Each structure stands twice: as structure tokens, then as C-alpha cells.
Amino acid sequence: MLTTTAQPLRRLFVESDMDAAEVIGVSSGHLAVFCRRCPGKIEPNDDSAAFIQTASGSIVMVVADGVGGSPLGYKASAIAVESIIEGVQDAELFTDLRPAILDGIERANHEILDMGIGAATTLAVVEISDRVARGYQVGDSMALMIGQRGAIRWKSTPHSPVGYAIESGLLDEDDAMHHDERHVVSNLVGSRSMHIEIGPATKLSPRDTVVVGSDGLFDNLHISEVIQRAKSGKPQQRIASLVQLANQRMLEFIDGEPGKPDDLAVLIYTP
Q1: Is there a domain that residue 67 lies in?
Q2: DSSP states of 12-49 as a string?
Q3: N or C, fewer C-beta in 10 Å, the chain?
């Protein structure tokens, strides 16, 4: 059994429509959170976000993006984040949270399928334990681990034809941002063929940053723009800069720049 070193803490952001980001202190640093529905949208926010800090000091960050156009996308994303947080909370005294995270994803998949209405969601999860981070991925929400000087320590691969084309070198990022199939997703929670991609264990340095976000962020900002705004500064300034540019891109369409109105969920961890 582990010795308690941190105050257990959990927060869920479901159907949120925040005016400003919230910064929460955790035992090893800060978590900045922003979750808001698409500008002008009347329906609930399909993006959900959550995090938990366990009694051992481990942190799990979660972003889910309910599939737009499918029934109750917001409900599907809520089920996904709640299933993972509850699973981790039940297993928080164990040193290895991977089984709890995987079980949470599988449980969410079964629960969404059992709704029987075609609901589905993407999912991006990052677990941080003793400065070692690992990502879990279903769909095209993304996680990004950034070094102090802007080097990419690790980046998840969107589960989409365009995402795989970028990863294989067949398509560069600039062209991908404007590709006709940019928004096609090939793997979802709520699918009988769902699969979970598990990233490598990545040792974080003291000034590294972790960003987890829905496609409301990554379809509106180039990776280089996310890195530039997230790598340094106070947590509130970092997330405010990301949100400001994403909002600008959603509202002002400029030739040659990405621009896609969408729900938005972002979590940033800074040691």
C-alpha cells in the first residue's frame, strides 16, 4: 500500500460553457482547464473534460468530444470521462493505474453501445505518475507533451485517415488542416470495433508541459502555435492564449489559416 502524499482531488466539466479558464493547484504543479460550447451554439457542449489527483499524487487528465451530428454526443462524452475518473478513484491506492484507465474506457464503450442510439465520442487521456506520463487514445482528440524549449516529447496520432497520412509522411500538417477528410474519424468510443492506443512511458523534465485537447483546439491551431503558446508563462496566460486564438479562428475566416467553429475543451498541466 502507498503512503498518502497528496490530497485526493477530482473535477468534471460536463456540458460546461466557461467564460474563462480555471487554474487548479495540484501537488506537483497546476492544471488549467477550459471547456466551452461552440460560439452561437444552442445545444449542449459535446466536449467534456475531467481530471483526478489520487492520494499517491498521480494525475489523470481526460478530454472527450462527443461526435457532432450523432444523438446525445454530449452524453457519450460525459459517460467516457466519468467512467475513467470513477475507475481511477476506485483504484487510486495502486501504483499502476493503467488497468483502471483501460477498464474505464472499455466500460464507457459498453455503456454507450447499450444506449442503442448511435452515440459516440473521441477520447484522449494522459496519466502522470512520478513525473512519468503516458497517453491513451481513441479518436482524434489529442495529447501533446512539450519540452521547455518547445521540443515535442510525445504527440498522439489522431485516429483518422488524415492523421495516419501525417504520421506516415504522406501529408504535411499545413495541407492536412485544409483537407476535405480532416474531420473523418476512424475509431470511436461507442463502436464495436473500438481499439485503444497506448503511448510510451515518457519521463517529464521539471519544466515540461502536457496539453490535452479536443479538435476544437487542434483543428484551429497548428501544432507549432499550440507549442508556442503552451510551453512557457503562467498557467492562466498559457491557456488564455490558446483559447483566444482558437476563438479568433472560429469567428474570423482568413485565407490560408485554419478555421472551424466547434466546441472546445483544453487541459494544460504545468509542473
Answers
A1: yes
A2: EE-S---SS-EEEEETTEEEEEEEEPPTT--SPP-EEE
A3: N
